[in-house]
Structure formats: structure tokens, C-alpha cells
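Example with several molecule types.
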Amino acid sequence: MFFDTDLPMSALRALTPILLAALGGALCERAGVFNIGLEGMMLLGCFTAVTTSWFTGSPWLGVLAAALAAAAYSLVLAVGAVTLRGDAVVLGIAMNLLAVGLTSFLLRTIFGVQGTFDDPSLAGLPLIGGLSPLAYLAWAAVGVAALALSRHVWGLRLRGVGEAPDAAATLGVSPAKYKYAAVLVSGVLCGLAGAQLALGNVTLFSENMTAGRGWIAVVAVMLGRALPLGVLLAALLFGIAEAAGFRLQGLGLPQQATDAAPYVVTLGALFLTTARRRRRTSRTDRTDSTGVTA
Amino acid sequence: MTRDRLTGALRSPVAFSVLAGVVIGALFLAGTGADPVTAYGAVLTGSLGADGIGSTLSTGTSVLGMALALAIPLRAGLINLGGDGQMVLGGITAAVTGLYSPLPAPLTVVLALLAGMAAGAGYAALAALCENRLGVPLLVSSLLLSYPAVSLASYLARYPLKEPGSSLPQTRRLPEGVALPAFGESTVTVGLLLVVLAAALYWFADRRTALGYEIRMTGLNPRFTAYAGVERAGLTLRLMAVSGALAGLVGAIGVLSFPYRFLDGSLTAPGYTWTGLTAALLAAAAPLGTVLASFFFAVLQVGGLAMERTTEVPRELTQVLQAIVIVFLAARLRFPRRWFGRRNRQQEAV
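Resulting C-alpha cells for the full complex:
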């Protein structure tokens, strides 16, 4: 009764938002921008998706608006970290805080409710084979990102910009342009992740509903060494942990224990991989911004 | 203060960011149909007036405590994002100590404070060990560790330690006398003095001791200080332990003040950790600046409630303001270089 078809389905549902956001994070990492604003961009995506879907009656417009809004929001990171050379970590933290405040503020200003907006007339995404179309899109995005990074000239240039910006500039590749593009694409992907969370997995908006998923996505980037397939495996691990947690809750384990499960599993996986990687590479200097791809 | 320093302060990115936050906040207020002058007036009178100052000081106790907890590692360029977990563990440990200690009440209070600090310190040290031993970045290990700690405390308050017969997820009330003394009728307790004392110690350590110098230099240039013989792993561990102890102290103070028990969510819901982090970032972790920034954000937080009452603008606006200030600040500058070359930067700032 523990392992039936429901478990993989709910794991797939749980992994979709993480996967989309983590792919965005991986692209940024490859371009040499540490993006920890994933959580905030995702949350803004959730809110925009719900608001647009409610006012227009179309969840598709909600998805589109979420992608655009999160992309616009990601410009804060692009301008701040790339053009003005600000601290990406501090910016990311501030963007996450701003998104929590802004969405709670707008929730009360626009809908006059506090906590959760849950209306029966709010249209969610249709399901195809039990999953929203965005879930399939996420899987397709993994393939596209993997091919682009390994085969296409853009991907090679993106990696070049991340690894050796000066060398890339000498070859006539503008590092700033590639960094902007990576950050904007991560915004779009986080917006889609938010839309999936608010209109695919459930159909509502509640304050801080991303609840650390953006951070899990940041960890997934590290776990997966910023490789699309690696990120997919990491997101899968999280999805299984979350789904198994729900299942165990159904079997009588307290909610607090299962709430913590995904974070504990993620942290454990991170310990194992980094410890092993460390042993293998012994002592190499970590020269990049985050040590993620080292 | 000389004229030169005054213009320097006014032209600094901090002044610019705060001003930008206030202006953007005014636009938000105007956008919701409220009069910005009335709203900001309500923030000030509501937080600094006779009715609000007590509330501001008791909120300020927690905000300053968390700001110090985050500022101390930040001074060395380390960011502790696990404040919530460390604070909550400190709070639940203090509650358990307060409930079951066989000692007389005054000693129990001291013991509960120490136990809370020890719990926070131990948990923060765990995050430091994750970085030192396993290579997991501190930013991530401290944050991820926070979630299970909050869940554990929540579980304890809802099941094994739950007050029998209560519908709220809370422990029993601490025994008579197991509480921090309050000033008069206010909600301000001796906890404020403890936190201010911690700020004074931090100032002293930062300005007058070799360790404080090492910490500042590590923040400015980790490679150089490593070359000069400062052992980074040990420093990380010590700074995180002090940071966690302060976060645990804030949790313990919260439990030993009204409502004199551990109530699930009452420590984390007001967002002291994030407000504290914002204050520490705004002040670039400098001791006096952290105190000032904490007071500023406590005024915003408490004043936000008054603003909500008079203008019906949601109090979440103050959270938006805090974040905007930091966005501007971060976008203007590279963080660790702030303490360097401020003089050269003055000309180009603003």
C-alpha cells in the first residue's frame, strides 16, 4: 500500500517546480551568476499566475503573466549583480524577502484577504495523464538545456562566460549579454515553476507558499553540479522525499516529521556528494563564486 | 562630527538606499490611495509615541538580538541563514528548562537563558561543521538545518510538551517567578539589557581586540588573512557558535517574557530573523550601526501596525520597505569592499 501508482505521480508533481527553478539556477551558475533569488522569483510567479488567472479566467494567461513577471523581477539581479557589480548573495536574499513582502501586501490590497486566497472560480491548469502541461514542459526543458549546453554554440559561449569571462570577451563574446540572458531565462523558468505550484499542484495562493522550494532548487543546482541531468536527478530525489513524506503522514506520522523530510534528505544527499567529491579532488582551490561547479 | 564626515555619511549608499526605500514606499502608499504623509506620520507616532514605545523596545529586543547574531559572522563575510532554527531551539530548550528545573526560580531563569544559548550555539556549530568538514556552503547548510529544527520544536509543542486541555499548540506556562523581570507595567524586560550588553561586548571585541581585527580582516580579504595565519575553519566554528548562542538567547528571552511559555510560531512568525539580517546588512555588520538599524526596523515593524489602523494600508508594506532598502544597497556595492576605500567611493556615490 506504500508503493502504488500514486506515489510516483505525486513525486512527479512535487518535483516539477523544483526542476524548473533549478534549471534556471543551473544556467545562471554556468554563466557565473550565483542566483539565490529563485525562491522569490517563484513566489512572485505564484502570485501573478493566480491573480491573472482569476481576473482573466484563463490559466494559460496566468502562466504567461507569471513567466513575464518573474523575468522582469529577475532584472533586479541582472542589473544589480552584472551591471552594477553588486553582491549577488545579498541581492538574492533581498529579492526573496521583497517577494514575500510584496505578494503578502498585494494579496491584501487586491483581494482583501490575509493568508490564503482560495476561490472556487479560480481556474487551474488542465491535467494530461495526471500531470499539468508544465510538468511535461519541465522534462522537455531538461533535454533542451542539456543539448544547448553541450552542443550548441550559445551553450558553449555561456559556459565560457562563466568560466573565463575575460577570455570570452577577448573572443568578442559579451559576458554581460550572456549573463543577462541566463538570468532572464532563469526568471522565466521560475515564473513557470511558480505557476505550476499555484495552478498545477494546487489551485490557490497562500503567503510564502514556496516554503523553501527555491532554496531546495539552489541545493539541487549544487547537487547536480549545474548539469541539466544532474539537476533532474536532484529534483527527483526531492520529489520522492516530499511524496513519501505525504504518504507517511497518511500512515499516522506527525506532519512536523514529514514536513522536515525533504530538507533532511536534501541535506543528507548534499553531505554525501560533497564529501565524496572533496575526497576525490583532494585540495583544489575553489576559485569560482560559489564553489558549486568546482 | 566634521563637515567632511557629515557629507560623507549623507552621500553614503546607506543614506541613499534608505531614502530610496522611503520614496518608493510613498509611491506604494499613493498607489493604494493613502496619503504618504499621514501614513508615515502614523508609523512614527505609533511606534515612538507613549503607547507604542514599549512595544517598539520589546520588538527591538528580538530584532537587535537577531541582528547581532547575524552581524557577528557577517563581519567575517559569513552569512548565517539558520537564525530561525537556532532561535526556536533556544526557545524550546529554555521552556523545558524553565518547566522542569528543580532549582529556585531566579536560578532557573539564569539556567534557562544559558540552556537556550547552548542549544542555539550547538545547532549553529553544526552548520559550521557542515561547511568545515563536508564542504557544504554555510549559507545552505545553516538554512536547510533550520527547517528540521523548527519542525522539531513545533512537534514538541504540539505533542509531548503540549499543555493539557489547551487548544493552542503551546507548552504549559512557566512556574511562578520563572520570568525575566519587566520594567514597570510594560512588556519590556531585562532581556533588552542583555541584548544591549551583547551589543556593547560586540563593539568592544570589534574595536579593541585582536580577534575583532582578525574577523574584520577576514571579511575584507579572506585570502590575505588566511596567508597571515588566521585559521578559517576554526574562526567559522567560533563565530557560528557565538551567533547561534545569541539567536538562542533571543528565543529564551521570548519564552521567559510574555506569554511565559513556548507557543508554536510565536518566535518565527514576526520574522525577527529576516528583519535582523536586513538590519545587519544595512549596517554592514558594524556594531553601532547594527544597533541603529535594528531600532529603525523595530520602529518600522511596530509603526506598520499603527499605519494599518489609521490608513488601512496593509502592514506588510513595511516588509517591502526593508527589502527595497537592501536591494538598493546590494545593487550599489560589492559587499566586502564596503569597509575598504569608503573614502574613495564617496565622490562617486549617490
